[in-house]
């Protein structure tokens, strides 16, 4: 099965910051004007030709991106909750961008793995793989030949091995159930 990954467009967190949203409320941020343009540009990629379905993260920035692409290429969207962004705080109580950034820096410092004998608030790379691989396997088992997955950089890295993925970037890969996800990249 071919998977065409698209990273969501650039999010605008102004509103959620002004309202003081915490936890999952922070993921209600829409796209910036630039993010909308990134989604429109992604929809022009020839890699999307013959895709049978768009699978999207439930977060607003990904759904907004998927909706623009769906409208432009005429392919339906399905939401897969387990394609959500890396969790910087598994208690869903991150208080703002400053705390989120600190937790993400800690994730980077430890390369996505807890220090031996310790735990942290954030989700590890093996946990990301454990929740996302069954989603990919599901569509493989259903017999899809080509799907589009609109998701987040931390998920896309696990499947492409690419360390830096731009907003709106389109990447294609071949997938089967024996595929081994990438750890730290």
Task: Give your account of this protein's structure.
This protein has one domain (2-174): Phosphoglycerate mutase-like (Rossmann fold), CATH 3.40.50.1240. Strands 3-2-4-1-5 form a 5-stranded mixed sheet, with helices on both faces. The mean pLDDT is 96. It has 6 helices and 5 strands; from the N terminus they run E-H-H-E-H-E-H-H-E-H-E. The chain has 185 residues and is α/β, with parallel strands linked by helices. The two termini are 23 Å apart. It is globular, with a radius of gyration of 16 Å. It has helices at 14-19, 33-42, 60-73, 97-109, 125-141, 153-160; strands spanning 2-7, 53-56, 77-79, 146-151, 170-174. Strand 2, helix 3 and strand 3 (77-79) form a beta-alpha-beta unit.
Distance between the termini: 23 Å
CATH architecture: 3-Layer(aba) Sandwich
- Percent of sequence in beta strands: 5-15%
Radius of gyration: 16 Å
- Topology as a string of helices (H) and strands (E): EHHEHEHHEHE
Structural class assignment: alpha/beta
Pfam family, one: His_Phos_1
Protein name: Broad specificity phosphatase PhoE
GO molecular function, one term: phosphatase activity
GO cellular component, one term: cytoplasm
């Amino acid at each position: 099965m071919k998977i065409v990954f698209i990273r969501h467009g650039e999010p605008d967190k102004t509103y959620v910051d002004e309202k003081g949203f915490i936890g999952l409320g922070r993921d209600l941020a829409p796209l910036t004007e630039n993010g909308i343009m990134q989604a429109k540009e992604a929809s022009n990629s020839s890699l999307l030709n013959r895709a049978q379905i768009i699978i999207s993260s439930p977060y607003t920035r990904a759904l907004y991106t998927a909706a623009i692409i769906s409208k432009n290429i005429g392919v339906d969207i399905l939401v897969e909750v387990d394609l959500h962004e890396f969790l910087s705080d598994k208690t869903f109580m991150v208080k703002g961008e400053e705390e989120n950034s600190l937790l993400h820096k800690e994730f980077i410092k430890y390369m996505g793995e807890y220090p031996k004998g310790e735990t942290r608030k954030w989700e590890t790379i093996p946990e990301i793989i454990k929740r996302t691989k069954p989603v990919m396997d599901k569509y493989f088992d259903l017999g899809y030949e080509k799907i589009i997955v609109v998701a987040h950089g931390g998920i896309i890295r696990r499947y492409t091995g690419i360390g830096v993925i731009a907003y709106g970037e389109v990447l294609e890969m071949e997938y089967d159930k024996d595929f081994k996800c990438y750890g730290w990249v």
